[in-house]
Amino acid sequence: MAFQVDRSPFDPESGFEYYICFKPKTEVEGDEIESRISIEVALSISETGDIADLSFLVPKICRNDYALSFLKRDPNANCVENRVFIALPGLNGDSVFAAAATLELDHSGRIVAIEINGCIPKTSTFTPARA
Questions:
Q1: Closest CA to 2 of 39, 50, 46
Q2: E strand intervals along 1-131
Q3: What DSSP designation does 60 have?
Q4: Structure confidence at residue 88 (pLDDT)
Q5: Whole-angstrom Cα distance, residue 67 to residue 38?
Q6: What is the pLDDT at residue 125?
Q7: Number of domains in the chain
Q8: Domain span at residue 8?
Q9: Nearest to 33 by CA among 44, 24, 23
Q10: Does residue 31 lie in a domain region?
Q11: In the chain, N or C: fewer CB atoms in 10 Å?
């Protein structure tokens, strides 16, 4: 089973936004989401902007087999202690970023998706003077 990955068009201010659905059904209904938890995710991006892999620390409330059930079913996801590692097949990462993300949980408390809220590196705060 492959995760469904959706990507927004590129925005110069916020970069790309990604939505990765872990639930086997191809789309998560909005009324199905019971809660959202803010986290930080580390991800590597290919030169075309596709996510090659990602990793995140599992919040304490989700550190059980039931909450991780959709992730544990997929061979591309690996749960080691309190961290999840996901590698998407056929992609190689060229750049690594840390980005804000939101885990979405269903009514039963299972992690069904992750929304990555834009990742564009802030390499410098230098602003050239205007003449």
A1: 50
A2: 4-7, 16-21, 33-45, 51-57, 77-80, 83-87, 95-106, 111-119
A3: G
A4: 84
A5: 16
A6: 55
A7: 1
A8: 4-26+45-119
A9: 23
A10: no
A11: C
100 domain-assigned: yes
Q: Region of 32 please: left (phi>0), alpha (psi -120 to 50) or beta.
A: alpha
User: CA-CA distance, 112 to 91, in Å (whole number)?
Assistant: 22
Determine if the pTM surpasses 0.85.
no
pLDDT string in tens for the chain (131-residue length): 467 888 887 777 777 788 888 887 655 566 678 899 999 999 998 888 888 899 999 999 999 999 999 999 888 899 998 999 999 888 888 788 889 999 999 988 999 999 998 765 555 455 666 65
| Residues comprising the chain, all counted | 131
Residue 127 maps to a domain = no
The answer to whether residue 124 sits within a structural domain is no
